[in-house]
Task: structure prediction
Amino acid sequence: MLENATPLDFDFLDLDPLDPPLRRNADQDAEDAFCRALLRLGAIWWDSEARRTFVRKLEYGDEEAFNAIDANEALKPSRLERGWVRVAWPSQPLGALCVLACEKIIIGRAGGERLRPQHFGIVSLARTMDERCTVLQRLGGNLYASIDEVQDPTFLKAWEQNHHGEKGPLVKAEFIDPSIYGGHPDEALGTFQ
Result:
């Protein structure tokens, strides 16, 4: 999931920001390519929708979620789940990328975190990947010659690293064609993944 996608992200994904796809692609190879592209922009690969929802509740200060953490230490969000990552793919040199990998405060500070910059919203004002790279570097991001050099804790290379989930098995939902149940495809939103 790529939160707060900008028109620049839509351009990278070759999507129309005014008419984005509302469902997964029925072609699994195309869906996989799309997911890899999302990861290349700094998306988080959640183990499941339930896990994403739980961590979001923590982020928004939900008392029940905090009580669940107190009762079971294993529920605590991982470093990657707390991540705030922004990526730029500048035009030159080819293959280079700029990465700013930080953390969001979800359950207090443990010390040693690189926290999301106070003025992180400025990243969304970049009009090109070159501008985004400049902004990320000003906020402390690093420029890499290739994705292979990136060592920051991110999901950028998760696809190649055979990611199996951090807090449980990855939930792989099969594509379900809404026409088989006689409904309009938009009625399947929130029902089918």
Notes: Helices lie at 7-12, 28-40, 49-59, 63-71, 129-138. The radius of gyration is 18 Å. The longest strand covers residues 97-103.
